[in-house]
Input
Amino acid sequence: MNDLLERHFLERTYKYLVGKIKKSLDNVDKKEVYKFLDALKSGMDDKRVTVDGAGRSLQSVLLLVSQLENTYGIRVNQVNNANLRPLRGGDIFVANSRSAKVEPEEAKIVSHARFARKKGLDVFFITANEEIKDIFENVILIKKEGYNKEYAPLGTGFEQATATLMSCIACSYYKKNPKESFDTLCKEVIQGYNRNLETLLKQDRALDAFIEIVNEYLSIENPGVVYFKGMGINDIIAKVIAIRYGHLHKNNCKDLNVVYESHWRCRRSNDLGIFLSGSGQTTQMIKYLSQAKSIGMKTFVITSYKDSKLARSNQWYKNCRGNLIISGRSIKYSYFNQALETIDEAFFPQFELNTYLTLDALLALIAKYNNIDEEDMKKTHRDKELE
Output
């Protein structure tokens, strides 16, 4: 990277975030997790699963949904999904909310969980709010702790911990020995995070390019829009990262205009597209990149394979601003267009988790060197009245 201080800050931030996740996994009550695993395994044949959350917490629980589809199929839905049928006694309801406010005005997610319990569903609540244990029987508590505002502005520990936790649960509940599989995955995912840092620190040029292009679009004088694009499970990560990057703001001088839901037809030649794909082989992502190139947009690709179709297509494009390699996808193969019944084993989303952590560490670095602090970022939160 251009500045040794930047490199050291990025490395320290990344290690800090990994350390917070590891501590959360180590401290979680395994008995509560095991109850959840048992419920999911016993319900594979005939139960439905409904999930609830908001903002980044919703995206974390959607990592669970993505993998549940392997065995539950269409019997898993979000509270706000139009496909959701009336809740049915005996089914499973999963709520994920850091604050899970009870007073003075009860949060919608707590209210929804109460309703589900009244209807006879087994409710599993993941939260940092200890008061929830007095309300619901099955609570996986991610203990509240302070956080470093420089390394994790606005706090990101709960969301990253639950994203990791949900992924480990999602890839172990259906195994012959779910509890043993879960414990093994909790260790392996931390190893995967650490291996990715080694990969990153060998890519100074790509990291510099990413920081440079985001800084360019941070300028209040730049009217361009930044699009985060992904498909399937990468779409989940694109959304959570877009939420985070949308907070990069400083009154009258810095503001990152971010889009992650729809609006792709509104793209213009002076916009930036950031494309996420573990395999780099997904047809739709290659098509999105082609559409961006056709009108002269600036482009940046994040993938596990530098020789993938997506990375190679971007590499020789005149407005390519870089390719960043993030480890984690074990094979260069796109699962997105395959029917689930043709896939023998679900892959663990290490690439997606690595991407989440990497881009959050880069966000902290970009914020620091643009003098954007937590108070600046809070000003971009949507109105509480609309939540």
In short: The chain is about 45% helix and 15% strand. The longest helix spans residues 4-27.
